[in-house]
Amino acid sequence: MHIPDGVMPLWIIVLGWVVTGVLLALCMASPQRRDVEARLPLLGIISAVMLAAMSLELVPIGYHLNLTVVGGIVLGPALAFLAAFVVNLVLAFFGHGGITVVGLNTLLIGAEMILGYYLYSAGLSLLGGRLSAGLLAAGVTVLALATSTLLMIGIVGLSNVNPGVASPEAAAVEPSDLSFRNPFGEGVVSWSPFAGEADAGAPPRMDLATFAMLVLGLGAVGWVIEALITGGVVSYLAAVRPDLVRLTSRAGGS
Amino acid sequence: MDIGTIDLWAVSGRSSLHRASALSKLLAAGLLVSAVIVTGDVFVLLAIYLVIAAGVVVARLPLARVLTIAAYPALFALLFSISRWTGSLVEPLLITGKAMTAAAVMVLLITTTPYPQLFAVLRRFLPALVSDALLITYRSLFILLELLNDLLMSLRLRGGLTKRRYLHNARNLAAGLGLLFVRALALSEQLHDVLRLRGYSGRIAGGVSWRQTTRHDIFPLGASLLILTAVLFFRYAPGARLYNGYFLLAAILSLLAALLVSHRRGAAGLGRVSR
Prior knowledge:
The complex is a heterodimer.
Chain A: H1 10-28, H2 32-38, H3 40-54, E1 57-58, E2 63-64, H4 68-75, H5 77-93, H6 102-127, H7 133-158, E3 173-174, E4 179-181, E5 190-191, H8 208-240
Antiparallel strand pairs in A: 1-2, 3-4, 4-5
Helix pairs in contact in A: 1-5, 1-6, 3-4, 3-5, 4-5, 4-6, 5-6, 6-7, 7-8
Chain B: H1 3-12, H2 16-19, H3 22-38, H4 42-58, H5 63-70, H6 73-82, H7 90-112, H8 115-122, H9 128-157, H10 166-197, H11 218-236, H12 244-267
Helix pairs in contact in B: 1-7, 3-7, 3-11, 4-7, 4-12, 5-7, 6-7, 8-9, 9-10
């Protein structure tokens, strides 16, 4: 899920950029810099694969794939975070997620990719060959996506402030009740389709539980789809290019 | 998200907006997104949205398709607006409107500016590694999109993607995407060899003239400055909000004027960008 522009308060947007900036600097800092430079083409092209997969809309529910966990497994944590930033920046230019919240969106997508990598690696070393790589990746995908969704709910909970509703002072076209008044002749021209409906000055009532239930409910459908596809992709890679999914030999595949 | 079509619009457009420099359009986009974030008035927001729509018409782009692309964040914004429901329609309209208007600004920018020009500006502000990764991502994206389309076509022709067989489809789609990953890796290895051969040392050379100013820069910069000034005026000047209706009226008139001029151009046989 991508956070759009205009829904978050400034402090959390700035915080998102600062944390992302620090993490990007850490990812590029030596001794990892040589590794990042050497694997730059892989980083760019896996980011492009993720974007290409995102262009696939799954009819009839309108969900698009992300392939964040596969990307994380293939790239490793440092490159994965850089890929998350690149993908979010490109998405923002396509109006698909806000430009001002690229930092926050990078943290969410980056969390999915990094968590996916670590959970998958831990699963491989703990379970060995007892579970196929595809099934493991599918399970990891559900966990990683559920965590990033909870992280997003946390961010919304933290930022539950007024997004900048106008002051209650009268206006020609009044946003508080969507009515129209002629400023040059009080009462001469007037149209109030929603008169008396709202009080723009009142603080917004927080309903995080409803939001969480809605997002988790919709998200769960996405997690299952993503897990199915990720499991299939990792199974395929385990059979064809096991080195890509941290398996040294074909025998360790699905 | 039809990336190929968006790129075609950006590259093949010949409008005044297409001819403005990438730097001026990026600055204008920054000013407009700032205006969207600052405003707390649904009608001022609607006025900005209508001006962006007028910009799309001036750029001779298909209005409905561009606004449909920019409408995608509305779904997410609606979810966010639920968390702040006050019993009034105003707050959801404001949150959804902000997301859609900011997205429309970015889509207008990307449909009128070829990506290499945007990168040339961005690389001045981003770390070299990140800007190089962006460049490689974008260059390889179109190769991969073509590969993906071919893969999907093959799957469909061989009965791999059929109606109502969801698990069967998911398995085949996953294998197709797995193949895409393998091809992508081969592509990245080729690119790695090319970069090494050319002596890559942490920065790919860029040679696009991104800061050449032209007379076409006046429109995007002037309009965005005017809008931000108006938004600040309505937000902070005492009594100014009495006149926000005139801002909305001006926006409606600007859209109507753009549509009229576009219609006349169409009648005169001047083609628009479409696909």
